[in-house]
Amino acid sequence: MIPRLPPERRGLIVAALGTSLTVSWASSYYIPAVLAVPMAASLGLSPVWVFGAFSMAMVVSAMVGPWAGARIDGAGGRGVLMASNLIFAAGLVLLAVAPSPALLFAGWAIIGLGMGIGLYEAGFATLAGIYGKQARGPITGITLIAGFASTVGWPLSGLMLALWGWREACLGWALIHLCLALPLNALLPKGTGSFTGATAPTEVGPPPSRLALVLLAFVFAVTWFNATAMAAHLPGLLQAAGASTAVAIAAGALIGPAQVAARLLEFGLLRRFHPLFSTRMAAAAHPVAAVALVTFGGPAAYVFALLHGAGNGILTIAKGTLPLALFGAAGYGQRLGWLNAPARILQAAAPLIFGAALTAWGLSAIWLTAGLGLAALIALLMLRRS
User: Fold this and answer.
1) DSSP state of 272
2) Is residue 268 classed exposed, middle or buried when 0-12, 13-18 and 19+ CB atoms within 10 A define those classes?
3) pLDDT tens, 92-121?
Protein backbone atom coordinates (compact mmCIF):
# COMPACT_ATOMS: atom_id res chain seq x y z
CA MET A 1 0.00 0.00 0.00
CA ILE A 2 1.27 3.48 -0.91
CA PRO A 3 1.11 5.88 2.07
CA ARG A 4 -0.89 9.02 1.41
CA LEU A 5 -0.74 12.41 3.01
CA PRO A 6 -3.88 13.35 4.99
CA PRO A 7 -5.61 16.55 3.86
CA GLU A 8 -4.70 18.23 7.14
CA ARG A 9 -0.99 18.11 6.17
CA ARG A 10 -1.52 21.07 3.89
CA GLY A 11 2.12 22.15 3.71
CA LEU A 12 3.35 18.72 2.67
CA ILE A 13 0.60 18.40 0.05
CA VAL A 14 1.51 21.78 -1.41
CA ALA A 15 5.22 20.83 -1.44
CA ALA A 16 4.57 17.48 -3.12
CA LEU A 17 2.17 18.84 -5.73
CA GLY A 18 4.24 21.96 -6.37
CA THR A 19 7.37 19.88 -6.96
CA SER A 20 5.62 17.44 -9.30
CA LEU A 21 4.15 20.33 -11.29
CA THR A 22 7.60 21.90 -11.52
CA VAL A 23 8.80 18.72 -13.25
CA SER A 24 5.79 18.72 -15.58
CA TRP A 25 6.28 22.35 -16.63
CA ALA A 26 10.06 22.02 -16.96
CA SER A 27 9.83 18.89 -19.13
CA SER A 28 7.17 20.19 -21.51
CA TYR A 29 6.59 23.94 -21.77
CA TYR A 30 10.23 24.88 -21.17
CA ILE A 31 12.21 22.30 -23.16
CA PRO A 32 11.79 23.78 -26.69
CA ALA A 33 13.82 26.87 -25.74
CA VAL A 34 16.84 24.62 -25.11
CA LEU A 35 16.28 21.50 -27.20
CA ALA A 36 14.38 22.70 -30.29
CA VAL A 37 17.46 23.68 -32.33
CA PRO A 38 19.47 20.48 -31.80
CA MET A 39 16.29 18.42 -32.10
CA ALA A 40 15.55 19.96 -35.50
CA ALA A 41 19.15 19.75 -36.72
CA SER A 42 19.40 16.02 -36.07
CA LEU A 43 16.30 15.40 -38.18
CA GLY A 44 17.23 17.85 -40.93
CA LEU A 45 14.42 20.26 -40.08
CA SER A 46 14.09 23.97 -39.45
CA PRO A 47 13.48 24.76 -35.75
CA VAL A 48 10.18 26.27 -36.90
CA TRP A 49 8.88 22.71 -37.35
CA VAL A 50 9.72 21.79 -33.76
CA PHE A 51 8.01 24.91 -32.45
CA GLY A 52 5.07 24.05 -34.69
CA ALA A 53 4.91 20.61 -33.07
CA PHE A 54 4.98 22.30 -29.67
CA SER A 55 2.10 24.58 -30.72
CA MET A 56 0.18 21.48 -31.78
CA ALA A 57 0.81 20.02 -28.31
CA MET A 58 -0.81 23.07 -26.71
CA VAL A 59 -3.86 22.67 -28.94
CA VAL A 60 -4.10 19.02 -27.86
CA SER A 61 -3.89 20.12 -24.23
CA ALA A 62 -6.79 22.54 -24.79
CA MET A 63 -8.92 19.74 -26.23
CA VAL A 64 -8.40 17.33 -23.32
CA GLY A 65 -8.50 19.91 -20.50
CA PRO A 66 -12.30 19.90 -19.95
CA TRP A 67 -12.38 16.08 -19.89
CA ALA A 68 -9.54 15.99 -17.36
CA GLY A 69 -11.30 18.55 -15.19
CA ALA A 70 -14.52 16.55 -15.20
CA ARG A 71 -12.57 13.42 -14.30
CA ILE A 72 -10.94 15.19 -11.36
CA ASP A 73 -14.33 16.51 -10.21
CA GLY A 74 -15.69 12.99 -10.12
CA ALA A 75 -12.77 10.85 -8.99
CA GLY A 76 -10.18 13.23 -7.56
CA GLY A 77 -6.91 14.43 -8.99
CA ARG A 78 -4.39 11.92 -7.67
CA GLY A 79 -4.99 9.31 -10.38
CA VAL A 80 -5.16 11.89 -13.17
CA LEU A 81 -1.89 13.49 -12.11
CA MET A 82 -0.18 10.10 -11.81
CA ALA A 83 -1.42 9.22 -15.30
CA SER A 84 0.01 12.51 -16.57
CA ASN A 85 3.49 11.50 -15.37
CA LEU A 86 3.25 8.22 -17.27
CA ILE A 87 2.02 10.03 -20.39
CA PHE A 88 4.74 12.68 -20.16
CA ALA A 89 7.35 9.94 -19.81
CA ALA A 90 5.96 8.07 -22.82
CA GLY A 91 5.98 11.19 -24.99
CA LEU A 92 9.51 12.10 -23.96
CA VAL A 93 10.75 8.58 -24.69
CA LEU A 94 9.13 8.75 -28.13
CA LEU A 95 10.90 12.05 -28.77
CA ALA A 96 14.18 10.49 -27.69
CA VAL A 97 13.92 7.60 -30.17
CA ALA A 98 12.11 9.45 -32.98
CA PRO A 99 13.87 8.68 -36.30
CA SER A 100 11.59 10.90 -38.39
CA PRO A 101 9.55 14.12 -38.22
CA ALA A 102 6.31 12.10 -38.12
CA LEU A 103 7.28 10.39 -34.86
CA LEU A 104 8.60 13.68 -33.51
CA PHE A 105 5.14 15.18 -33.99
CA ALA A 106 3.59 12.06 -32.43
CA GLY A 107 5.81 12.47 -29.38
CA TRP A 108 4.77 16.09 -29.00
CA ALA A 109 1.10 15.12 -29.37
CA ILE A 110 1.49 12.69 -26.46
CA ILE A 111 3.22 15.39 -24.42
CA GLY A 112 0.27 17.68 -25.26
CA LEU A 113 -2.05 15.08 -23.76
CA GLY A 114 0.09 15.11 -20.61
CA MET A 115 -0.05 18.91 -20.53
CA GLY A 116 -3.83 18.80 -20.75
CA ILE A 117 -4.12 16.60 -17.65
CA GLY A 118 -0.98 17.45 -15.70
CA LEU A 119 -0.29 21.20 -15.49
CA TYR A 120 -1.75 23.99 -13.36
CA GLU A 121 -5.41 23.41 -14.19
CA ALA A 122 -5.23 19.81 -12.96
CA GLY A 123 -3.33 20.87 -9.86
CA PHE A 124 -5.84 23.62 -9.08
CA ALA A 125 -8.77 21.24 -9.54
CA THR A 126 -7.11 18.66 -7.32
CA LEU A 127 -6.73 21.20 -4.51
CA ALA A 128 -10.31 22.42 -4.97
CA GLY A 129 -11.47 18.82 -4.57
CA ILE A 130 -9.56 18.51 -1.31
CA TYR A 131 -10.17 21.92 0.26
CA GLY A 132 -13.16 23.42 -1.56
CA LYS A 133 -13.27 27.21 -1.42
CA GLN A 134 -10.44 27.16 1.10
CA ALA A 135 -8.04 26.15 -1.69
CA ARG A 136 -6.87 29.71 -2.42
CA GLY A 137 -3.84 29.45 -0.13
CA PRO A 138 -2.70 26.03 -1.41
CA ILE A 139 -3.20 27.18 -5.03
CA THR A 140 -0.93 30.15 -4.37
CA GLY A 141 1.55 27.81 -2.68
CA ILE A 142 1.97 25.47 -5.64
CA THR A 143 2.43 28.40 -8.02
CA LEU A 144 5.18 29.72 -5.76
CA ILE A 145 7.03 26.42 -6.14
CA ALA A 146 6.28 25.67 -9.79
CA GLY A 147 7.09 29.28 -10.67
CA PHE A 148 10.71 28.15 -10.59
CA ALA A 149 10.15 25.62 -13.39
CA SER A 150 12.13 27.64 -15.92
CA THR A 151 14.83 28.36 -13.32
CA VAL A 152 15.24 24.61 -12.80
CA GLY A 153 14.27 23.35 -16.24
CA TRP A 154 16.40 25.44 -18.58
CA PRO A 155 19.74 24.83 -16.78
CA LEU A 156 19.00 21.12 -16.26
CA SER A 157 17.99 20.62 -19.89
CA GLY A 158 21.10 22.53 -20.95
CA LEU A 159 23.31 20.42 -18.69
CA MET A 160 21.92 17.14 -20.03
CA LEU A 161 22.22 18.46 -23.58
CA ALA A 162 25.88 19.39 -23.06
CA LEU A 163 26.79 16.11 -21.35
CA TRP A 164 24.83 13.61 -23.42
CA GLY A 165 22.71 15.14 -26.20
CA TRP A 166 19.10 16.13 -26.74
CA ARG A 167 17.77 12.57 -27.01
CA GLU A 168 19.35 11.62 -23.69
CA ALA A 169 17.99 14.85 -22.18
CA CYS A 170 14.46 13.73 -23.11
CA LEU A 171 15.15 10.33 -21.54
CA GLY A 172 16.45 12.09 -18.44
CA TRP A 173 13.22 14.04 -18.05
CA ALA A 174 11.23 10.83 -18.54
CA LEU A 175 13.15 9.22 -15.69
CA ILE A 176 12.57 12.25 -13.47
CA HIS A 177 8.82 11.88 -14.07
CA LEU A 178 8.90 8.20 -13.13
CA CYS A 179 11.29 8.46 -10.19
CA LEU A 180 10.28 11.79 -8.63
CA ALA A 181 7.02 13.30 -9.88
CA LEU A 182 5.02 10.05 -10.01
CA PRO A 183 5.79 9.02 -6.40
CA LEU A 184 5.03 12.56 -5.18
CA ASN A 185 1.61 12.56 -6.88
CA ALA A 186 0.95 9.11 -5.41
CA LEU A 187 1.20 10.67 -1.94
CA LEU A 188 -1.74 13.01 -2.56
CA PRO A 189 -5.14 12.30 -1.01
CA LYS A 190 -7.90 11.25 -3.35
CA GLY A 191 -9.32 14.77 -3.44
CA THR A 192 -13.09 14.39 -3.78
CA GLY A 193 -14.35 16.31 -0.79
CA SER A 194 -12.05 14.35 1.51
CA PHE A 195 -11.39 17.34 3.75
CA THR A 196 -14.36 17.30 6.08
CA GLY A 197 -13.14 19.68 8.76
CA ALA A 198 -14.78 22.87 9.86
CA THR A 199 -13.45 24.77 6.88
CA ALA A 200 -15.17 22.60 4.28
CA PRO A 201 -17.48 24.82 2.25
CA THR A 202 -21.14 24.41 1.48
CA GLU A 203 -22.09 24.89 -2.14
CA VAL A 204 -25.05 27.22 -2.50
CA GLY A 205 -26.46 29.54 -5.11
CA PRO A 206 -27.44 29.37 -8.77
CA PRO A 207 -25.08 28.22 -11.54
CA PRO A 208 -22.78 30.88 -13.00
CA SER A 209 -24.14 33.09 -15.75
CA ARG A 210 -23.03 32.51 -19.32
CA LEU A 211 -21.83 36.13 -19.55
CA ALA A 212 -19.56 35.72 -16.52
CA LEU A 213 -18.05 32.55 -17.99
CA VAL A 214 -17.46 34.22 -21.37
CA LEU A 215 -15.86 37.26 -19.75
CA LEU A 216 -13.55 35.15 -17.65
CA ALA A 217 -12.58 32.91 -20.58
CA PHE A 218 -11.72 36.06 -22.54
CA VAL A 219 -9.58 37.39 -19.68
CA PHE A 220 -7.65 34.13 -19.43
CA ALA A 221 -7.18 33.92 -23.20
CA VAL A 222 -5.74 37.41 -23.69
CA THR A 223 -3.55 37.30 -20.57
CA TRP A 224 -2.06 33.94 -21.65
CA PHE A 225 -1.51 35.45 -25.10
CA ASN A 226 0.35 38.40 -23.61
CA ALA A 227 2.43 36.25 -21.28
CA THR A 228 3.51 33.89 -24.06
CA ALA A 229 4.20 36.72 -26.50
CA MET A 230 6.45 38.44 -23.97
CA ALA A 231 8.20 35.18 -23.07
CA ALA A 232 9.09 34.66 -26.72
CA HIS A 233 9.92 38.22 -27.80
CA LEU A 234 10.75 40.35 -24.76
CA PRO A 235 14.46 40.93 -25.57
CA GLY A 236 13.60 41.98 -29.13
CA LEU A 237 10.84 44.28 -27.90
CA LEU A 238 13.09 46.00 -25.38
CA GLN A 239 15.78 46.46 -28.02
CA ALA A 240 13.18 48.01 -30.32
CA ALA A 241 12.52 50.48 -27.48
CA GLY A 242 16.19 51.47 -27.46
CA ALA A 243 17.64 49.19 -24.80
CA SER A 244 20.99 47.54 -25.43
CA THR A 245 21.24 43.77 -25.73
CA ALA A 246 22.78 43.53 -22.25
CA VAL A 247 20.04 45.67 -20.70
CA ALA A 248 17.31 43.70 -22.52
CA ILE A 249 18.64 40.40 -21.20
CA ALA A 250 19.15 41.77 -17.68
CA ALA A 251 15.61 43.21 -17.65
CA GLY A 252 14.18 39.91 -18.88
CA ALA A 253 15.90 38.14 -15.99
CA LEU A 254 13.83 40.26 -13.58
CA ILE A 255 10.52 38.77 -14.70
CA GLY A 256 10.95 35.57 -12.70
CA PRO A 257 11.75 37.32 -9.40
CA ALA A 258 8.92 39.81 -10.04
CA GLN A 259 6.47 36.94 -10.49
CA VAL A 260 7.58 35.28 -7.27
CA ALA A 261 7.47 38.57 -5.34
CA ALA A 262 3.92 39.23 -6.56
CA ARG A 263 2.84 35.73 -5.58
CA LEU A 264 4.28 36.26 -2.11
CA LEU A 265 2.26 39.48 -1.93
CA GLU A 266 -0.84 37.53 -2.96
CA PHE A 267 -0.06 34.89 -0.34
CA GLY A 268 0.31 37.56 2.35
CA LEU A 269 -1.40 40.94 2.09
CA LEU A 270 -3.70 40.39 -0.89
CA ARG A 271 -5.24 37.18 0.44
CA ARG A 272 -7.33 39.43 2.72
CA PHE A 273 -9.13 40.75 -0.37
CA HIS A 274 -11.39 39.09 -2.89
CA PRO A 275 -9.39 37.58 -5.80
CA LEU A 276 -11.24 39.91 -8.18
CA PHE A 277 -9.41 42.86 -6.61
CA SER A 278 -5.92 41.44 -7.07
CA THR A 279 -6.77 40.19 -10.58
CA ARG A 280 -7.87 43.66 -11.68
CA MET A 281 -4.64 45.13 -10.34
CA ALA A 282 -2.63 42.48 -12.18
CA ALA A 283 -4.48 43.02 -15.46
CA ALA A 284 -3.67 46.74 -15.31
CA ALA A 285 0.06 46.11 -14.87
CA HIS A 286 0.92 45.26 -18.49
CA PRO A 287 -0.86 48.27 -20.08
CA VAL A 288 0.80 50.61 -17.55
CA ALA A 289 4.17 49.00 -18.31
CA ALA A 290 3.58 49.46 -22.05
CA VAL A 291 2.87 53.18 -21.62
CA ALA A 292 6.07 53.55 -19.60
CA LEU A 293 8.12 51.73 -22.24
CA VAL A 294 6.77 53.80 -25.14
CA THR A 295 7.10 57.07 -23.21
CA PHE A 296 10.61 56.62 -21.81
CA GLY A 297 12.11 54.05 -24.19
CA GLY A 298 15.08 51.88 -23.26
CA PRO A 299 15.60 53.37 -19.75
CA ALA A 300 12.16 51.99 -18.80
CA ALA A 301 13.11 48.40 -19.70
CA TYR A 302 13.51 47.38 -16.06
CA VAL A 303 10.23 49.01 -15.06
CA PHE A 304 8.45 47.22 -17.89
CA ALA A 305 9.88 43.84 -16.89
CA LEU A 306 9.02 44.29 -13.22
CA LEU A 307 5.43 45.42 -13.86
CA HIS A 308 4.76 42.79 -16.50
CA GLY A 309 6.29 40.03 -14.37
CA ALA A 310 4.38 41.04 -11.24
CA GLY A 311 1.08 41.18 -13.12
CA ASN A 312 1.70 37.84 -14.79
CA GLY A 313 2.59 36.25 -11.45
CA ILE A 314 -0.75 37.15 -9.92
CA LEU A 315 -2.72 36.37 -13.08
CA THR A 316 -1.36 32.82 -13.02
CA ILE A 317 -2.82 32.38 -9.54
CA ALA A 318 -6.07 34.06 -10.57
CA LYS A 319 -6.64 31.37 -13.19
CA GLY A 320 -7.24 29.04 -10.27
CA THR A 321 -8.53 31.25 -7.47
CA LEU A 322 -10.93 33.55 -9.35
CA PRO A 323 -13.22 30.83 -10.80
CA LEU A 324 -13.24 29.18 -7.38
CA ALA A 325 -14.26 32.40 -5.63
CA LEU A 326 -16.85 33.40 -8.24
CA PHE A 327 -18.47 30.05 -9.01
CA GLY A 328 -17.62 27.71 -6.13
CA ALA A 329 -16.02 24.27 -5.98
CA ALA A 330 -18.87 22.25 -7.51
CA GLY A 331 -17.90 21.31 -11.08
CA TYR A 332 -14.74 23.37 -10.69
CA GLY A 333 -12.37 21.10 -12.62
CA GLN A 334 -14.46 20.81 -15.77
CA ARG A 335 -15.32 24.52 -15.69
CA LEU A 336 -11.64 25.38 -15.37
CA GLY A 337 -10.86 23.19 -18.37
CA TRP A 338 -13.40 25.00 -20.54
CA LEU A 339 -12.33 28.43 -19.30
CA ASN A 340 -8.69 27.75 -20.21
CA ALA A 341 -9.23 25.98 -23.54
CA PRO A 342 -9.32 29.23 -25.60
CA ALA A 343 -6.26 30.42 -23.68
CA ARG A 344 -4.24 27.37 -24.71
CA ILE A 345 -5.14 27.87 -28.37
CA LEU A 346 -4.25 31.57 -28.34
CA GLN A 347 -1.09 30.74 -26.43
CA ALA A 348 -0.03 28.43 -29.25
CA ALA A 349 -0.42 31.26 -31.77
CA ALA A 350 1.05 34.07 -29.65
CA PRO A 351 4.73 33.80 -30.64
CA LEU A 352 3.90 33.83 -34.35
CA ILE A 353 1.34 36.67 -34.16
CA PHE A 354 3.37 38.96 -31.94
CA GLY A 355 6.57 38.15 -33.82
CA ALA A 356 4.95 39.25 -37.07
CA ALA A 357 3.65 42.42 -35.39
CA LEU A 358 7.09 43.22 -33.96
CA THR A 359 8.71 42.76 -37.37
CA ALA A 360 6.13 44.95 -39.10
CA TRP A 361 5.57 47.67 -36.50
CA GLY A 362 8.61 47.65 -34.22
CA LEU A 363 7.96 49.06 -30.76
CA SER A 364 4.38 49.94 -31.75
CA ALA A 365 3.60 46.21 -31.56
CA ILE A 366 3.33 46.71 -27.81
CA TRP A 367 -0.02 48.41 -28.36
CA LEU A 368 -1.40 45.03 -29.45
CA THR A 369 -0.73 43.42 -26.07
CA ALA A 370 -1.49 46.64 -24.17
CA GLY A 371 -4.88 46.86 -25.89
CA LEU A 372 -5.63 43.24 -25.04
CA GLY A 373 -4.61 43.86 -21.44
CA LEU A 374 -6.90 46.88 -21.24
CA ALA A 375 -9.77 44.84 -22.69
CA ALA A 376 -9.13 42.18 -20.04
CA LEU A 377 -9.29 44.85 -17.33
CA ILE A 378 -12.63 46.12 -18.69
CA ALA A 379 -13.97 42.54 -18.69
CA LEU A 380 -12.88 42.11 -15.08
CA LEU A 381 -14.59 45.37 -14.11
CA MET A 382 -17.81 43.96 -15.58
CA LEU A 383 -17.62 40.92 -13.29
CA ARG A 384 -19.13 41.00 -9.82
CA ARG A 385 -18.21 39.03 -6.73
CA SER A 386 -21.34 36.91 -6.94
Assistant:
1) G
2) exposed
3) 999 999 999 999 999 999 999 999 999 988
